[in-house]
TrEMBL record:
Its main location: cytoplasm. It is found in: Cytoplasm. SUPFAM superfamilies: CutC-like. Keywords: Cytoplasm. InterPro entries: CutC-like, CutC-like_dom_sf. It holds the Pfam family CutC. Belongs to the CutC family. It comes from the Bacteria. This is PF03932 family protein CutC. The keyword Cytoplasm applies.
Amino acid sequence: MTKVLLEAPVFSLQGALEAAQYGIDRLELCANFPEGGETPSAGMLRFLKSEVDIPVFVMIRPRGGDFVYSQKELIVMKQDIQLLKELGADGFVFGILDEKGKVDETACKMLLRAVGDLPCTFHRAFDASSGLDDSLEKIVDLGFQRILTSGGKNSLTEGLPVIQQLLNKAKDRIIIMPGGGTKAEHIPLLKQSGYLKEVHASCKLAKPSPNQFINSGLSFSAMPLDYSLHFGVDPDLVKGFKEVL
């Protein structure tokens, strides 16, 4: 049986290098973990491509919040794709909705043209859309290679029944890639459809920062603890996934 590919979202250099070291098959390179991922820097991608030998897919998202973008934001997204493609991106991750929560086919086509022949993932904007079945068909028709989804719920645990339905509905027309709080124990259930090909899991591990001074009267985040932590990758979690994929 063909092994299922394991992709990890990475938000820092440390996390990306550890993911590659510990056996992750593909990276989804992002910035800004608290916002759920935004476009990373060009320097980060260029450096990573010189350090790792696994594919690096790049998030294209100019800001946090919703997935309805202005024309000028779309131009920024297109230019990011053009620049990051030149720097060696192996694929791209994005998703665009209109004001009614439908897949914005016109905007997606514009970005897909900029991408060219590289593979694209429609990210969890899918989960924010107004109808998953309708969105699935539109994304298939547009030519995306995969959909990252938690089944329209906050976590894969909650959305598992929906993802099982999506796997059976999509069949081999597009890859349904479960993600969002993915655990190794989800995998046997997801494999039952026979269509599971890829899984998205952060396998993240919070590690103490080497920083030795913290100004107790200053906070840069609603979660001050973040200032004293760096997020890496847990090799035991990666191993747990590899054993069941």
